[in-house]
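Standup, Tuesday
Yesterday: got the pipeline producing C-alpha cells again.
Today: sanity-check two examples.
Blockers: none.

Example 1:
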Amino acid sequence: MLVRLITSYQIVASEKFPPNTDYIEYNSAKDAMVAIPKDFKVRLIPRDREGLKKALEDAKCRSEHGYTTRR
C-alpha cells in the first residue's frame, strides 16, 4: 500500500499546516517515550489518473474473494 501511495501520487505539503521537521519541536508529546508527530496536512495529486484507476480496479478484482464473511 505504501509503495502504491508513493508511486501513484505526488505528495505536496500544505502551506497552512506543513509537517514539522525540526528534530526538537517535532514531537507533540514531549514526555512520551515514542515520537508522536504534530498534526499536519498534505495534498495527494494523482500522477496518472487513468493508470491509477486501472491499477485500483485490477487490485479490486484480485482481492475481492479474499475478504468474504464466513459464518
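Example 2:
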Amino acid sequence: MTPTPVPEDFHTITPQMAVKGVAAAIDWYTRALGAHELLRNAAPDGTSIMHAELLLGDSRFFVVDEFPDSVLSPSTLGGTTFTMHLYVPDVDATYARALDAGAASQSAPEDKPYGHRNAGVVDKNGITWWIASPIA
C-alpha cells in the first residue's frame, strides 16, 4: 500500500519554529496558549532538542532548537518574517494568560471591522502570535 503524502492527523502545511531553548518554549506554549506536547526528541548527546511536536486545537506545529550551522532562531537573526495566527474561543483570556506567562503585548484585544476580535503578543522567542476569534 502506498503511504499518503500527508501523515494522519496533520494538515498539508506544518509550521516548524527554531528557537533558543526549546524546553522553555514548550513550557511557555503549554502554559500561555494551551498547547499539548505530543513528542520530544533529544539530540544523541542530550544537549538540545532536535524535534518537538505540539498540538494547539486541531493543528500541530514543530519546535526545534537552534543549530547555528543550519537552523537559526529569530533571536539570532534579529527577528522573523512570519507570524502565527491562532483562533481561540476567548481572545481576552488567551491574551491575559500569554501576558502573565511573560509575552509582550503587540496589540490589546479589540473588535475589528472585518468581524474578528483580535489581539497580538510576542513570545520570549520573538515570534508574534495573533490571537483571534470571529464575532457576530
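Quick observation on example 2: The chain has a mean pLDDT of 93. Residues 18 and 64 are 5 Å apart (CA to CA).
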